[in-house]
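QA checklist item 7 of 12: single-chain prediction sanity check.
[x] sequence parsed
[x] length recorded as 181
[x] structure emitted
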Amino acid sequence: MVIEKQRLAWAITGSGHYLRECIEIIHTLEDVDLFLSKAAAEVMQQYGYKHNVGKVFHDKTSSSVPVELFYQGRYHTLVIAPATSNSIAKMVYGISDNLVTNLYAQAGKTRVPSIIFACDTAPELESEAPRDHMVKVYPRQIDLDNIAKIKTYVDTDLVEDMQSLKASVQARSQAVLTKKN
């Protein structure tokens, strides 16, 4: 069964890195469902961020029940933003043990393209901590190696900044519209 109007699936992991900006992008989109890892729900509350989108799915089941929506053809694209180094490592090595990593696995198995905004993409960066405090972050070499690996995966577009994230989401949305017409 294929849903007539496909939606965008947006998953958030437990990072505050550009979380505010990701939520701002989400609020500009139509036909989007939000998927929150357990850590994402905690971090959003800790940072005081709210969402107002269609459906919100929380990581509350061991088998990540909402992934069945990919088998029903409900989504045209999966966005994972922001994505922690932990989530990236799990996706690189095929570990699907939570809602977000299961979404990535099922998107791949159903050939739904994924756009990932990873947190740890450079040897040094600044990231927002709770209460509007900026901190210097120095990703480990293994984190950078995993970024390089996931960039090579089929149907995975890894973006490294907000401008690229916006452009990739817009391009994918436009491609879906063009394909329908």
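[x] summary fact logged: The chain has a mean pLDDT of 88.
[ ] second reviewer sign-off
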